[in-house]
Amino acid sequence: MFTGIIEEIGTIRSIKRGNASAVLEIAADKVLTDVQLGDSIAVNGICLTVTEFSTRHFTVDVMPETLAKTSLASLGPGSPVNLERAMAAGDRFGGHFVSGHVDGTGVIVDKRPYGNAVLYEVEAEDGLLRYIIPKGSISIDGISLTVVDVTETSFSVSIIPHTLAETVLQYKEKGDRVNLECDMIGKYIERILTWRERKARPSSLTESFLAEHGFLE
């Protein structure tokens, strides 16, 4: 579990590509201070497992499903990435619940100054937009952000100077693809409600039953 508060920007040192998978070597500093084999680190919002590390880098395996559903396939040596260690018990919870399981990707379609901030508009498919609400939470490349507005095809977020300076959003422009994870609370609520509907027993209180027992003439 993560909070969407980025700890540092790392750099892709190398990518070893297989037929449909990859191994990433990522240069980092802060997230390595207490790292152990098997730890989870969110890389651009994607929960990945540390398989090897030194004092200056760590290595992760990327399976085919992750490459297919995220923006990792577009990265190369030298690409900056957002990094966050898994939340520890007792830590302050400054963002929102972020699982590191990306729902899909979106495309930046607009970027413009907005007072002292920068407004990003991100186009996304209907399957993702259904979970995005104004003033709700969204994770973009692992960053916990508040939604400003939602349209039929996109949503917007306002990025303050500090967040821009501390994350890879400073490098993103129109046309760039970003990882999206919708607020898990909304997804759980939908699952519970639709599950109940599917499992609900048909009512025995039918028109014929009422007529048979004298309630209808």
TrEMBL record:
Coiled coil: none
Repeat region (Lumazine-binding), residues: 1-96, 97-193
The Lumazine-binding domain, residue ranges: 1-96, 97-193
Function: Catalyzes the dismutation of two molecules of 6,7-dimethyl-8-ribityllumazine, resulting in the formation of riboflavin and 5-amino-6-(D-ribitylamino)uracil.
Pathway terms, separated by semicolons: Cofactor biosynthesis; riboflavin biosynthesis; riboflavin from 2-hydroxy-3-oxobutyl phosphate and 5-amino-6-(D-ribitylamino)uracil: step 2/2
Organism, scientific name: Aneurinibacillus danicus
Enzyme class: transferase
PANTHER family: RIBOFLAVIN SYNTHASE, RIBOFLAVIN SYNTHASE ALPHA CHAIN
UniProt name for this protein: Riboflavin synthase
Keywords for the protein's UniProt record, in alphabetical order: Repeat, Riboflavin biosynthesis, Transferase
GO MF annotation, one: riboflavin synthase activity
